[in-house]
Write a structure and sequence with these properties.
Helix content: 40-55%
Distance between the termini: 84 Å
CATH class of the largest domain: Alpha Beta
Number of domains: 3
Order of helices and strands: HHHHHEHEEEEEEHHHHHHHHHH
Mean pLDDT: 86
Shape: globular
Low-confidence stretches: 269-281
CATH superfamily of the largest domain: Collagenase (Catalytic Domain)
Strand content: 5-15%
Number of helices: 16
Structural class: alpha/beta
Length: 447
């Protein structure tokens, strides 16, 4: 009996010792961290203070000093990510405020480094999409129609436009390939649409770019152009050069548009829409400083979608996108603001309403999204605009669980353009209807 009691006392003493040690350990590591911080051994300070904070996550003093140490070490991707998470902490304390000040400092420093840009317009469905630089040069395939021999200068102007992006950026690289399957960028030509003119007024989209994405993997970017202008004539060298120069910007990952008329990636206004035949004829366009700043910053952001698994991308020297762009909700709120400003400038074309509808949809505001998209449909004057509007309406309805309405809209979109993208969306909706399972979330498409 006495022996059992002795064992019990020993076990109790050990447990008390363990508990005491556990309670003392955070203080030990905290003190060690403070000592290292005082002598500017910030890496070691961060290590010790991290342990103290993790052992006692509710201790505000530990947390605040941990943020101090975190701010003192090189801002790698993981450091930025953790600091951003701390700045968004539900518990608003001195540590969270300090983290917010630090992330704002990083943002201002980054924007100063890269200069004026419109990086907020680049995301695709709130995600950063771009090619992995290690994959350069990007392989480009030109798919000329077999039944129509296009002028030789078509290929020349495409080559010049690619070269302009190379020389202006200093880091982009392209090469041509004769194999469509191995190309990252496919440039193809469609026959001129019929019935696109009323008298001398002709309205149709000259070109558009679509990404092919499979499970967050960027398979290819397809640039589609028409082979002739609205009157059946081949495009001039300037028209073709300027058009393909703009579309290459999209194919590189600038999925939206600048709102500045000085930039190559400017979204066309009402006057340009109504004179789409002549908009590119006057002179060769150029890539602006803001265009270059934007593409350079884009390729220094860690991507969400790329042509290799993002887990294999070396991120430590890249920028954590929310540091610049904020949360997905922040991005959509900014997009709503910009779209409304654009609508004021160009109220008679659908582009702004399409952007507005997508932003509302991303925020879960279905009624506002459909209202904006219906307005876009009312203003639409081209098959491509109709395709984009109906496609996005289908995604809105699908995400809301209205599969029958989604399918109707998707099939209307397919009537305008039977793309691989719309075929995948229809298959997704039909599979969900037949299996009664929730459909895979699909992405919206923009102008």
């Amino acid at each position: 009996m006495r022996k059992n009691f002795t064992i019990y006392l020993i076990i109790t003493a050990i447990l008390i010792g363990i508990i005491a040690a556990i309670n003392l350990l955070p203080a030990v590591f905290f003190k060690a961290g403070l000592n290292e911080y005082k002598v500017k051994h910030f890496e070691k300070a961060h290590k010790y203070l991290s342990i103290a904070k993790n052992l006692k996550p509710d201790n505000k003093e530990y947390k605040y000093n941990y943020v101090l140490a975190l701010a003192s070490i090189p801002p790698t991707y993981n450091v930025q990510k953790e600091m951003y998470a701390l700045s968004k902490d539900n518990v608003t304390d001195s540590a969270a405020r300090l983290a917010l000040v630090q992330t704002d400092f990083w943002k201002r420093r980054i924007l100063k480094k890269y200069g004026q840009n419109y990086i907020e317009q680049t995301p695709y469905d709130s995600k950063i999409i771009r090619w992995d630089i290690a994959s350069f040069p990007l392989k480009v395939y030109i798919d000329f129609p077999s039944n129509d021999k296009l002028p030789d200068y078509y290929r020349e102007e495409i080559s010049k436009a690619l070269n302009q992006w190379e020389t202006s950026s200093g880091f982009l690289k392209f090469t041509f390939t004769q194999k469509a399957k191995e190309a990252q960028i496919v440039i193809k030509f469609l026959p001129l649409p019929e019935n696109n003119c009323v008298g001398r007024v002709c309205k149709y989209v000259v070109a558009f770019t679509e990404p092919t994405i499979k499970v967050d993997m960027l398979k290819k970017m397809t640039i589609t152009l028409y082979d002739k202008d609205a009157y059946g004539n081949y495009f001039s060298d300037k028209e073709l050069y300027n058009t393909i120069l703009h579309e290459i910007g999209h194919a590189l990952g600038i999925m939206g548009h600048s709102y500045s008329t000085d930039d190559l990636m400017y979204m066309s206004n009402e006057e340009q829409q109504n004179n789409i035949y002549t908009r590119f004829r006057s002179s060769f366009q150029y890539i602006s400083a803001k265009d270059i700043n934007t593409i350079t910053l884009l390729y220094n952001l860690a991507p969400d979608i790329s042509n290799i698994p993002v887990s294999k991308i070396e991120k430590e020297k890249l920028i954590y996108p929310p540091i610049i762009l904020g949360t997905a909700e922040d991005m959509q709120m900014d997009k709503i603001k910009e779209a409304k400003n654009y609508i004021k400038k160009a109220p008679a074309i659908p582009n702004g309403y399409i952007d507005l509808g997508i932003a509302y949809a991303q925020l879960g505001q279905k009624n506002n999204a459909l209202k904006a998209l219906n307005k876009a449909l009312e203003l639409s004057k081209t098959p491509q605009d109709n395709y984009i509007v109906y496609y996005n309406m289908a995604v809105v309805e699908m995400n809301a669980g209205n599969l029958s309405k989604a399918l109707i809209n998707a099939r209307k979109a397919q009537e305008y353009f039977d793309s691989e993208e719309i075929s995948d969306l229809i298959s997704n909706i039909e599979h969900a209807k037949s299996t009664r399972k929730k459909p895979f979330k699909d992405t919206f498409i923009e102008e």
